[in-house]
Design a protein that fits this description.
Layout: E1 4-8, H1 13-24, E2 28-33, H2 40-48, E3 53-57, H3 63-76, E4 80-85, H4 100-128, E5 131-136, H5 148-168, E6 173-180, H6 186-194, H7 199-208, H8 218-229, E7 240-243
Parallel strand pairs: 1-2, 1-4, 2-3, 4-5, 5-6, 6-7
Helix pairs in contact: 1-8, 3-4, 4-5, 6-7
This protein binds NADP nicotinamide-adenine-dinucleotide phosphate.
NADP nicotinamide-adenine-dinucleotide phosphate binds next to helix 1, helix 4 and helix 6.
Length: 249
């Protein structure tokens, strides 16, 4: 039976690469993002290559959006047994300048979003005794200047991952986190601009700090997600895999 995956924040960056890779692996894939139009190109590429994909517009921090999206996936593609909680935002600021909205919106998308999505999807996974939940953490979980909100969310993602792994393991569901270092996406290009640097200079400086001498590509993360989603990875659970071109930080 063809497995069905959901990837959130799949319109671009890491989410788009993960969705494409899971489709290459033979899964049907639902691409969820705030605006379903943003996922249209990704869906077209997958369908043109002979796969099956569906675009859904939903805000993962809203319980009603999440419930509607997961119901649609189950009806139109089949019960989801792979979930990649990837949707994310940054609202960087030093603590004394960080607003309550900066804090709430970042925690809301990353943590509340992963919670709502996982709670909605686990019903299908536990019933079918098969599931893979993959959460996007970050090296920022270890601390990063200007990211009190984001690092708290990404560290929280690690505790969330380990707890779900304990709760869901006996139902055949594994739960793991990927913690990327700097990956070249719109998110990090935006950071470069905010710091007043060219994107090229920002990436070059980051590459110099990395053992392998380059910054990451979305496909680097998709490769690890593909492994964690595979049926053969059923004895890997509760892990945080740093994918940062070297030791964690
Ligand atoms: P990105 O290029 O900014 O893409 C994130 C996507 O998530 C966007 O399409 C965005 O939609 C969507 N999104 C935001 N809020 C959402 C919500 N409430 N509901 C549904 N979708 C939402 O980011 P990325 O760099 O690919 O990062 C993907 C994930 O990896 C994030 O969790 C990020 O924290 C994590 N990560 C990234 C890096 C890195 O270096 N890039 C490193 C470590 C971890 P809009 O475009 O409409 O806003």
């Amino acid at each position: 039976m063809t497995r069905t995956a959901i990837v959130t924040g799949a319109a671009r960056g890491i989410g788009a690469a993960v969705a494409a890779r899971l489709a290459d692996d033979g899964l049907d894939v639902a691409l969820i993002d705030l605006d379903s139009d943003g996922c249209a190109a990704g869906v077209r590429r997958i369908n043109d290559a002979g796969g099956r994909a569906l675009a859904i517009g939903a805000d993962v921090s809203r319980a009603d959006d999440v419930a509607g999206a997961v119901t649609r996936v189950a009806e139109e593609l089949g019960p989801p047994t792979v979930l990649v909680n990837n949707a994310g935002i940054i609202r960087d600021n030093l603590l004394f300048k960080m607003s309550e909205d900066d804090w709430d919106s970042v925690l809301g998308v990353h943590l509340r979003g992963a919670f709502l999505m996982s709670r909605a999807v686990q019903e299908h996974m536990t019933r079918l005794r098969s599931g893979r939940i993959i959460n996007l953490s970050s090296t920022s979980a270890l601390g990063n200047r200007g990211q009190a909100n984001y690092s708290a969310a990404k560290a929280g993602m690690q505790g969330f991952t380990k707890t779900l792994a304990i709760e869901l393991g006996k139902f055949g569901v594994t739960v793991n986190a990927i913690a990327p270092g700097l990956i070249a996406t719109d998110m990090t290009a935006g950071t470069a601009r905010r710091l007043g640097m060219s994107v090229e200079d920002f990436y070059a400086a980051a590459a110099e700090q990395t053992a392998v001498g380059r910054v990451g590509r979305p496909e680097d993360i998709a490769h690890v997600a593909s492994f964690l989603a595979s049926e053969g990875a059923s004895f890997v659970s509760g892990q945080v895999i740093y994918v940062s071109g070297g030791p964690a930080d």
